[in-house]
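Researcher: Next entry in the queue.
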Amino acid sequence: MPGVWPDSFKQEDFTSDSGIRGIHFSYECSDPQHPERKVTSKLRMHKYLFHNKVGRCVVISYLTPADRDSDTVHQMIRKTLILE
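Model: Structure for this entry, 84 residues:
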């Protein structure tokens, strides 16, 4: 994938407060609007993957400037994730 920083990939299992289990992975990439400014425009992509009640894969994507990544957002995703 163009602009992705290969050494930045991270993966972890997670369980939401409601018991939903899934995989969270993240990576850093250059801003596609400004690929020439790799350091000043670095972005971090997060993806939360899990299965819904009928077994289909669901993905929540969260894109943020790397220097503004927020633990609060990740906690909110894990605390509020429920299947209805």
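Model: Strands lie at 10-15, 21-30, 42-51, 57-65.
Researcher: Noted, moving on.
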